[in-house]
Design a protein that fits this description.
By secondary structure, this protein is α/β, with parallel strands linked by helices. The protein is built from eight helices and seven strands; from the N terminus they run αβαβββαβαααβααβ. It starts with 20 loop residues before the first helix and ends in a 10-residue tail after the last strand. The structure holds S-adenosylmethionine (SAM). InterPro entries: SAM-dependent_MTases_sf.
């Protein structure tokens, strides 16, 4: 549901100019990059591929793609370019809900933790799929809150679910979209579909750091709209990165599919 105060991701909360935002995204990248790189490697990227990383953030995935496709071109697209180095890849300031690339522009399109935040995610994904060249791959990785819903730690569950509700209220985020994968890719007629789920733990981990820094940015919303007291928030912030804490955090569900019509035609 789109909340009454819906706004674009990063307009206020999670702006790349916010204190701690680079650290927060670094926690996310450290938690997820290994799995993302492994999944992308199984698609056997070729040196001449044209790649697009949507909502590139810090650009860690863009940089990896640029390294694997040195004779092609890698484009990092984001609505905020301040944290992108452009090291080996091009950066473009574009909004995936509004802007276009010509049909058939890319051999590989990747997006991680972007579409769930977009109220128009399904139509955006359909537009993005048209940017694929014949034989190209679409790889979408997004988060899902189901592991938090089953946490046995009441305070962690309460504050974490309030965080999910706070981003839903602000941006129209859907915290259950990814557990429906790979249906959104099948609907687009993609083939050679695959899917994989990863659930990192909070605690003294990159994910714990990401989650604590996320809570700190959302603190006024948690207090004003979701009944989280200052004491509860302070307890949560201490808990979520503490050495003995290991509750599951948000899942990442990845799905990929190809515009190929024939089976397993990755020899292009
Ligand atoms: C949670 S961060 C994920 C960053 C990176 N993909 C990663 O997983 O490390 C979401 C990113 O998507 C970008 N973003 C949000 N809405 C966008 C839009 N409409 N068009 C393009 N990028 C967008 C944000 O600026 C931010 O960099």
């Amino acid at each position: 549901m789109i909340g009454v105060d819906a706004e674009r991701y990063g307009d206020h909360v999670f702006s790349h100019g916010s204190a701690g935002e680079a650290d927060r995204l670094l926690g996310l990248a450290k938690a997820l990059d290994e799995g993302t790189f492994r999944r992308l490697a199984t698609l056997r990227p070729r040196a001449e591929w044209r790649c697009l990383d949507i909502g590139a953030g810090l650009g860690t995935v863009s940089e990896w793609l640029a390294g694997r496709c040195p004779r092609g071109r890698t484009v990092a697209m984001d609505i905020d370019l301040r944290l992108l180095s452009g090291n080996g890849y091009d950066v473009v300031d574009r909004d995936v809900t509004l802007d276009e690339f010509p049909p058939g522009s890319f051999d590989l399109i990747h997006a991680r933790w972007v579409f769930s935040h977009l109220p128009t995610r399904d139509t955006d994904l359909a537009r993005v799929a048209r940017w694929l060249a014949p034989g190209g791959w679409l790889v979408v990785e997004d988060f899902d809150q189901f592991p938090i819903e089953s946490s046995r730690h009441p305070l962690y569950r309460k504050v974490s679910l309030a965080m999910c509700a706070a981003v839903a209220r602000r941006f129209g985020t859907e915290g259950h979209w990814a557990s429906g994968f790979p249906a959104p890719l099948r609907t687009l007629g993609l083939t050679d579909i695959g899917t994989e789920t990863f659930v990192p733990s909070a605690g003294p981990t990159p994910m714990g750091r990401f989650w604590r820094l996320s809570a700190e940015q959302l603190a006024p919303d948690l207090r004003d709209h979701f009944g989280v007291t200052a004491t509860e928030l302070a307890e949560f912030v201490d808990l979520v990165e503490s050495p003995t804490f290991d509750e599951p955090c948000l899942a990442t569900v990845a799905a990929w599919g190809s515009l190929t019509t024939g089976p397993h035609d990755n020899g292009r």
